[in-house]
Amino acid sequence: MTTESTPVMVCKNHPTRETGLRCNRCDEPICATCAMRTPTGYRCPQCVKEQQKVFDTAEVPDYLVATLVAGAMSFVGGLLATAFGWFIIFVAAFGGGIIAEAVRRVLKGRRSKRLFRIIAGATFVGGILPALPNVLGGIMFLAMGELGGLAAAGFSLLWPLIYAGIAASTVYVRISGIQIGQ
C-alpha cells in the first residue's frame, strides 16, 4: 500500500511558513499574514498593489489644482460661516457637496486615495483661514492680559471650525465614494 504525500506549499514571501492558501489572482501560495481579503477572495500584497494602480489615476497637477479649488471655495464658505451663525450647521454639508462636485469636474474622474485626503484637508484649512485674524487678535489680547478679548476671539472661531469640519467630511465622503446607510 503506497501513500502519495502532497507537496508542502510555502508562502512566496515567507519561505519558512507552510500554507494551504493561494492568491486568487496569481495562484501563488500565501500565508495568513500576507493574505489580503478582497471582495473576490484572498490576494497577495503584490497583486493588490498592481490592482490599486488601476484605481489610482490622478496625475501630479491634479493634486495642486484640486487643492486650490477646494481651498478657495472653502475659504468663501468660511467667510460666509460667520454671517450664517448657527445656521451654518445646516448649510455646511450643502457647501461641501458643491465643493466636491466642483473638484470632481476639475479632475475629470481621476482619483487617488491620497488625493481624497488632500482635498478634505484643503477644504478644512480653507474654511478656517478667514478666522485667522481673530485668532491673531486673541493672541494679542492674551499678551496684553485681557481674557475677555481672548474669549471673544475664541468664540468667533467657533462657526468657521464647525463649517470647516462638516464641509471637509462631506467633501471626503462625496469624493472618495464612501456609501453611507446602505
Written overview of the protein:
With 182 residues, this protein is mainly alpha-helical. It is 63% helix and 5% strand. The longest helix has 25 residues. It is elongated, with a radius of gyration of 25 Å. The mean pLDDT is 84.
Structural class: mainly alpha
Strand content: 5-15%
Number of strands: 4
User: What is the CA-atom radius of gyration, in angstroms?
Assistant: 25 Å
Task: Please indicate the count of domains.
Answer: 2
Total helical elements: 7
Mean pLDDT, to the nearest integer, reads 84
| Spatial order of the strands forming the largest sheet | 1-2
**N-to-C terminal Cα separation, in Å?**
58 Å
Shape: elongated
What string gives the helices and strands in order? EEEEHHHHHHH
Q: What helical percentage do the residues reach?
A: 55-70%
Q: What about the largest sheet?
A: 2 strands, antiparallel
Indicate the low-confidence ranges by residue numbers.
none
Provide a quick synopsis of the model:
The chain is mainly alpha-helical and 182 residues long. It contains seven helices and four strands, in the order ββββααααααα.
List the helices and strands and how they pair.
Elements (H helix, E strand, L loop, with lengths): L20 E2 L6 E2 L5 E3 L2 E3 L1 H11 L4 H25 L3 H20 L5 H16 L3 H13 L2 H10 L1 H19 L6
Antiparallel strand pairs: 1-2, 3-4
Helix pairs in contact: 2-3, 2-4, 2-7, 3-7, 4-7, 5-6
